[in-house]
Amino acid sequence: MRTPVVAGNWKMNGSKSTVTALLQGLKQGLNPGRASVVVCAPFPFLGLVADELSGSAIQWGAQNASQYPAGAYTGEVSVGMLQEFGCSHVILGHSERRALFSEQNEQIAAKFMAVIDAGLTPILCVGETLEQREAGTTAQVVEEQLMAVVDAAGVIAFSKAILAYEPVWAIGTGRTASPQQAQEVHETLRKRLAAVDGAVADKLPILYGGSVKAANAAELFACPDIDGGLIGGASLDAEAFLAICHAAE
Ligand code: PGA
What we know:
By secondary structure, the chain is an alpha/beta fold. The chain has 11 helices and 8 strands.
């Protein structure tokens, strides 16, 4: 039985005051249950998030990390720094990082290994564009993204990781994958990993992301290979995010 996970991806949003209000709303409204709840904040807010969430049932993390431990890497943030701020999770390979900041599979794999080595949990994102879906290459695209990291990091690293399937055409568009579409890709990913290691594949939480809201979360999370969600827009609203967490119970 896999533990459901609901992770908020705040992206580049928020201010000290809105973050404080959001966290207070989450702390007050969350009924701790079976699901793990995580919020992934912009770097400058991590100290504030740590202060607000310490001792609560909510974990926190970042949306990116450097593959390097320290040194002359202007503008980068190391995994060790994230650890100092109490982060437990790091989103890696989000499609916005792949498309807008030219992150490639090889670099994402190096970041994944740095996060694993530090004992934090990577949330590795994979997903196809609309063009790729229409060309019928969805399975090939997501399997390639997954296997690039499996080949570099080793399959055992995935016993400490989370995978997120996020179709690019569903992110921030209001157009969610249907539960059938999402389940089909989740099953494909799990089977691909099972071909390498069945036990690891069986335990791996695979989250769906892309326009998840309170209204569609329950039917997505009811699918056998969907173990929770990676939530963008709706994670900025305490009430909406709490409703999604509730749907994962
Ligand atoms: P969305 O974003 O929920 O706003 O579509 C999801 C994500 O990009 O992680």
